[in-house]
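FYI - complex with iron/sulfur cluster, inputs then prediction.
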Amino acid sequence: MHLKILYRGSLISCNYGCEYCPFAKKQQSAAELATDKQEIERFINWIAQNSHYKFSILFTPWGEALIHKWYQQALVKLTQMPHVHKAAIQTNLSCKLDWVEDCNKAKMAFWATFHPEWVTCNKFLSQCLELNQRGINFSAGVVGFPQFKAQITYLRQNLPIHIYLWINAVKKELPNLSQEDRAFFQSIDPFYELNTQHYPSLGKTCRAGKSLISIDGEGTIKRCHFIKSPIGNIYDYNWEDSLFERTCINETCHCHIGYVHLDYLELDKVFGSGILERIPHNWDYNLAALLTGESKYKA
Ligand code: SF4
Ligand code: SF4
């Protein structure tokens, strides 16, 4: 069985200070960081011991993880395991990147977010180009505020054409966006409008809880990051009993890392094996189709 995991441990700190983020410039004590490190190491051991599964893992930290060596080491170790298909991470891409040479690059992926208020466009771009030059798969993206349009244009013009640049829709700001703003974001990211929706999910089948789970530092299993009730713990002998098909108990689902697993949306066909790191399947094809006005996957 192939199990996808969203891992979010005890890390709640970041080297950037984005205005809208609760982890902005937050620091943690040495003891708290040591706990996070121990949790990661325990999780890696658990993955190693469960080689009867195939795993794809996305680290979705509350803060920036790759400035800590133990997350870099986690990716190195995971990508070297034969039964791990993918190890990916959400990052602000502020860390040094030489360590990626120790990974099995074919299995590694980054979800890199540009934060225009904390890093220059050229610095972020140079990190992206280094990742590309080192042969790492990644998506890059920006939160869709109209004041970032110039930087977004610059990034799209300077990123290699095969790199997908996503725009995260700010749902509560949508009423304030002009049609021109939305058209601009859609012209950069043909899946932007997909990300503007609150998808009805109550009673709908979702792969979360069956073939995708959320895990915290203590091993608690939840079906996804958006339904808080635990369904088990990976460190219990019977953890596999918690995996079965479920219907969603939330009214709607609006975050990429959630709604892409709703069965009826069939977004696994859009993102394929890049679903965790947000890289559309056949992205080159889609870009070409977009440029000729024939995007296959219209919102
Ligand atoms: S880089 Fe990400 S985690 Fe850090 S402050 Fe900004 S939004 Fe928050
Ligand atoms: S639809 Fe969203 S909230 Fe509901 S189970 Fe799936 S991922 Fe979780």
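The chain has a mean pLDDT of 93. The two ends are 31 Å apart (CA to CA).
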